[in-house]
Design a protein that fits this description.
six-stranded mixed β-sheet, 6 helices, 2 domains, about 210 residues, alpha/beta, elongated, Ribosomal Protein L4, Chain: A, single chain
Length: about 210
């Protein structure tokens, strides 16, 4: 079992919760994590870049002047890449960089990422994350007390507008529902912060209820 510390608003550890590694696959699958991260970043690429090749440039295909006897350098047609206004020698074309991972692999990669954070001591449960209204200053104070001010991913069990608005303008802080987490987001964050409710959802296996 892995001990996940519970931190209060003053930054003191007031308890801990136990996390069963078997709920997260039992071990960290590093090769699957790499595959998931490569796929995620590849899917961020738009791939709409395009430049004109010789075939795309307007102009006649005839030779500009004869090969020999003019005293000038050899020249082909107007569309050659060595002339101003000519086409590119290796023109860029639209590409689809997307990679596909099946649902089971995505979930297992996410669970491995969460398990890696827990094993490294970068996961914690933060109490007192209740907001009657958006308060960025309070959120900054809470994350600083939990030693997560330099970057954190806050996992919620259900939508909370006040909490989300309190943290959305803080640099390197991301707030997501626990069912929306992916391996890349978990590993990119310096620390993984749960609310008591989201950790209860994780422990009870409710992170796989949403279709992906």
């Amino acid at each position: 079992m892995i001990e996940i510390p519970i931190i209060d608003a003053a930054g003191k550890q007031v308890g801990s919760e136990r996390l069963d590694p078997d709920l997260l696959g039992g071990r960290v699958r590093y090769s699957l994590l790499k595959q998931a991260i490569v796929a995620y970043r590849a899917n961020l690429r738009v791939g709409t870049v395009q430049t004109k090749s010789r075939a795309d440039v307007h102009g006649a295909s005839r030779k500009l002047y004869r090969q020999k006897g003019t005293g000038r350098a050899r020249a082909g047609n107007l569309r050659t890449p060595v002339r101003v206004g000519g086409g590119h020698a290796f023109a860029k074309k639209n590409r689809d960089f997307s990679q596909k991972l099946n649902r089971k692999s995505r979930r297992l990669a996410r669970d491995s990422a969460i398990l890696a954070k827990a094993l490294s001591g970068s996961a914690k449960i933060l109490k007192d994350m209740t907001f009657d209204k958006p308060q960025t200053k309070k959120m900054v104070s809470l994350l600083a007390a939990a030693d997560s001010g330099r970057g954190a991913l806050v996992a919620l069990s259900s939508p909370n507008d006040n909490l989300t608005k309190s943290g959305r303008n803080i640099p390197k802080v991301d707030i997501k529902l626990i069912v929306d987490l992916n391996a890349y987001d978990v590993l990119k964050a310096r620390s993984l912060v749960f609310t008591p409710e989201s950790f209860a959802a994780l422990s009870s296996g409710l992170t796989t209820t949403k279709s992906e």
